[in-house]
Amino acid sequence: MKSPLLIACVLLLSNYLKAQEPPSPEFKNPPVVVEVLAGNNGYASQMTVNKSFRSFPKLGIFSVTNFSSRWSETNSKDMMNQIHLTYHFAKGFSVLAGTHYTPSSGLRPNTALMYSYSSKEFLITLMPRIDLANNSNWEGFALVEYKPKLNEFWNLYTRAQGLYCATINSGDHARSYLMLRVGISSKEFRFGLGANWDAYGPARNTKANYGVFVAANVIN
User: Beta 155-167 vs 173-186: how paired, if at all?
Assistant: First the structure.
């Protein structure tokens, strides 16, 4: 009779001690962000993924895909994809290594350094990047979001996002853009007015697109 009583006491004590332990903090990953802009000259989209591994949060994956096309185009080549393995080594700072692809430059290995600051009202991201290949490019990227609360349901949403890319050997301009957004947000949705300015190659051939945007945090 002693064994069942002893086992019951041990189980009760174990459950009691477990109940006294502080709850472990919930693991949270940033959402996947998808945005679409429909404008006077064409269509543009952007998808951003920034995830940490649940079992080792210092390691993660960072990926950005941009695509745009004029309404009259049937085979647009204005596309960029980059995907990196990230290592978070200090507060706000990560080192990245991965690949970068565009139809004009092809697939190239590259490395980057990223700084990110996030609060309820601000998001700031800065990222210098360099190709690890012949005829390499260097690139500077910056993003600033300001999203103050308007009332219980709505926030103002503004964003400035810019990129400048040049060849290392000659210093010639390769690619640059400026994206501006202003609108409102509620929960995981954002919408409003947007403008994209793009420039290509040493001659800086430009195109502009003005319209409306819709964005959503599609996965938490």
Answer: antiparallel
- Tell me which H or E stretch contains 18: helix 2-20
Q: Please report the pLDDT score of residue 24 as a whole number.
A: 46
d(CA 165, CA 173): 6
> In whole angstroms, what is the distance from residue 49 CA to residue 47 CA?
7
Phi, psi of 171 (to 5 degrees): 80, 5
pTM of this structure: 0.84
Query: Is residue 6 scored above 90 in pLDDT?
Result: no
CA distance 50 to 83: 10
C-alpha 140/C-alpha 185 separation (Å) is 28
Q: For residue range 126-182, what is the model confidence (pLDDT) as tens digits? A: 999 999 988 899 999 999 999 999 999 999 999 999 999 999 999 999 999 999 999
What are φ and ψ of residue 14, in 5° steps? -65, -45
Q: How far apart are CA 166 and CA 21, in angstroms?
A: 55
| Beta-carbon contacts of residue 134 (< 8 Å; ≥ 6 apart) | none
List the beta bridge partners of residue 183: 157, 192
Angle of CA points 33, 39, 40, to nearest 5°: 170
Q: How far apart are CA 66 and CA 55, in angstroms?
A: 30
Q: Give the DSSP letter string of 152-202.
A: SS-EEEEEEEEEEEEETTT--EEEEEEEEEEEEEETTEEEEEEEEEEEETT
Tokens of 155: 């926030």
Distances (CA, A) of 66 to 101, 120, 122, 145: 11, 26, 23, 18
